[in-house]
Amino acid sequence: LVSRDNHPERSTVRVGGVPIGPGTVTLIAGPCAVETPQQTLEAAEMAKAAGATLLRGGAYKPRTSPYAFQGLGEAGLRILADVREQTGLPVVTEVVDAHDVELVASYADMLQVGTRNAQNFALLQAVGGIGKPVMLKRGMNATIEEWLMAAEYIAQRGNLDIVLCERGIRTFETATRNTLDVSAVPVAQRLSHLPVIVDPSHSGGRRDLVLPLTRAAIAVGADGVIIDVHPNPEQALCDGPQALVDDDLRELARVMRDFPPLV
Ligand code: PEP
């Protein structure tokens, strides 16, 4: 269903009216985690001012450590919905448990399945049946074939509004959190008709790498990028070291504008 063999034209997925697909490079930005109404609104305003057309933000955080901030849950979803009301930005947010899909979908414009759940087949089937666009991150240990098969689980439930997101894979390299596999972008685009975006924030794990990795993503033809921003990264409850602030995000958006998309 997601193969390009039976569907030669590349697809465009619309999220609250915003297109992700060939001919555009969509900027999705927002806080890694929803922490407070004010932090989320400030991050969203920064994102919007820079030119982002979709707001990201996690209410359910799949953290490596059980002692790390796990997200605000439904309270976080309510904050995202309020901020959408105030900014007009449609909301992309992660769902980590099949039992929460209906609840998260009632607030979100697009559901995100993260790297740690990329082969959670019950979750993939649940998001496939809920009637909202889905962003499927690549599992950090998944081959491109496994990633596309994961997308197939969603598609099989009748949902072809799927955006693939390359977010770095595990390699022997420890200088970056994960290794951004830039070749995955054109490879996945050739094998599948689905749009492919890149997450330079979670792959590098470092603020200074976000712009160079964004340039790389656009150069290989990514259909968009998803970027962490925070009004005060030193105080962030999650992934502060990779969050951009105002000026960095504006610079990144400028670079994106100057770089015409490959069609
Ligand atoms: C995220 O985008 O908030 C996230 C946790 O990403 P990943 O699943 O790629 O680690």
UniProtKB/TrEMBL annotation:
Which domain of life does this protein belong to? Bacteria
Alphabetically ordered keywords of this record: Transferase
Answer whether the UniProt record assigns the keyword 4Fe-4S to this protein: no
Under Enzyme Commission nomenclature, its number is: 2.5.1.54
Q: Give GO terms: molecular function aspect only.
A: 3-deoxy-7-phosphoheptulonate synthase activity; aldehyde-lyase activity
Say if the entry is tagged with keyword Cell cycle.
Answer: no
Q: Which residues cross the membrane?
A: none
Which of the seven top EC classes does this enzyme belong to? Answer: transferase
Q: Which residues form the DAHP synthetase I/KDSA domain?
A: 17-258
Name the chain's protein: 3-deoxy-7-phosphoheptulonate synthase
Q: Which organism is it from?
A: Streptosporangium roseum (strain ATCC 12428 / DSM 43021 / JCM 3005 / KCTC 9067 / NCIMB 10171 / NRRL 2505 / NI 9100)
